[in-house]
Design brief:
Elements: E1 2-3, H1 7-13, H2 15-20, E2 25-26, E3 34-36, E4 67-72, E5 78-79, E6 82-83, H3 85-93, E7 95-98, E8 103-106, E9 110-113, H4 121-132, E10 141-142, H5 152-155, E11 158-162, H6 167-174, E12 178-181, H7 182-188, H8 207-210, E13 217-220, H9 227-239, E14 258-261, E15 266-267, E16 275-276, H10 278-292, E17 302-307, H11 310-327, H12 335-346, E18 371-377, H13 384-394, E19 418-420, H14 423-434
Parallel strand pairs: 3-14, 4-9, 4-17, 9-10, 11-12, 11-13, 13-14, 17-18, 18-19
Antiparallel strand pairs: 1-2, 5-6, 7-8, 15-16
Helix pairs in contact: 1-11, 3-14, 9-10
Amino acid sequence: MFLVLSQTAAILKHRRDLTTMNGTAAMQNTFRVSRVICRSHEPTRQFQYCRFSSSDTNVTEVKKPHFGLLFDIDGVLVRGKRLLPQAVEAFRKISAFNPKANRRELTVPTVFVTNAGNALRQTKARQLSEWLGVHVSESQVVMSHSPLKILPQFHDKHVLVSGQGPVKDIARGLGFKKITTIDELSDMFPQLDAVDHKRRTNTPQSELGNYLAPIEALILFGEPVRWETALQFMIDVLVTNGRLQSSPKAIPEPHLPVLGCNMDLMWMNETHLPRFGHGSFLVCLETLYQAKQMGIVKPLRTLYAIGDNPMTDIYGANLYNQYLSHRGIKRLKNTADIKSAIAQQSTMRSPNGHSGYVDKVDITFGESAEMMESVLVYTGVHSKSAAVEMIDSSGDLTAIDHGHRDFKYCPDLSRPTLEVKNVFEAVKTIFSRENYGPGNL
């Protein structure tokens, strides 16, 4: 049984960040992974940085827009180690120099949404600032793991975390307090890490393993380096119901919660072929288990979500737009109503029987955009001939992707509002639609 998150939940969690610029449950006895879906994998190696002159447009001369932008990163702004040249042009168009802060700042409300889960938000914000030559704050970055902050019912549980980078620091930053990593399990139970013959050992189990508290949930930030080790320990934890010291008499049903960030099967770097993503790792985990059994004064009217994958970026944006349409007349208008709703829901029981369940998706915080438009670019995972034409001809992309199994598949949600070649063309098209640009300064 799992509490399911989606790209919609990720955007809901950070809608206030976009408007201030300060900065459903599914139960099955078969294996299910809750997922926190955004999109992208960004490397941390050297980039060709974007640099602008301080003699460009002054930030005080720029007209305040009535729309905002959500950028996917990999496949839209960067491709592997390469900053796309169109991104340089795009950010020149949506930024200006602030003489008081002595830096270039974004003039259009902007949030960066990425499925990268190997870094802290502040680290990614600094990285984006260096790449683009424009100041980006932590509150403008939504990582794949960011929505885990709205799951306080898991924060006091003992969790097993998986991924790359500073996974313990990331988990602590999200609110988790009792954390164990895959590497720590390997140190405690070395004989269980036996897939790689070179790593096999006769070293007995560490005494620390005898005192390991039962693991209560699995948190997957992104694909690990050694898939075989992570897969083995995760399956061991699931079939032992979190008690690695014991041998299971039966496979527990339901199994422990598995919260997976990022369901993308593939991602694109500078090569000509897509690379396996975290979604591929989760497919392996599922199969193995089944075998066992910016400051804005006024609210925005429109958000534009710019991505390169119809089945995640576009589907998620259109799904959120559907949410805005359905919930528009039911918004909670003041803080008192919000607190009252949260307090009332916190006393309810979730569909899986857990107390303290808070359905954050049903809480609309204050002001929000009226609609979200999806924009597909052809510089990432899919090209026009490979994906969009398939939607047009068959109306069904489920044969080539694995995402969004938490929702009944709707072909219309995979169709973008706008289709453009690259991110610069996307910004130009959005400016034209909004009648916004140099002529309106």
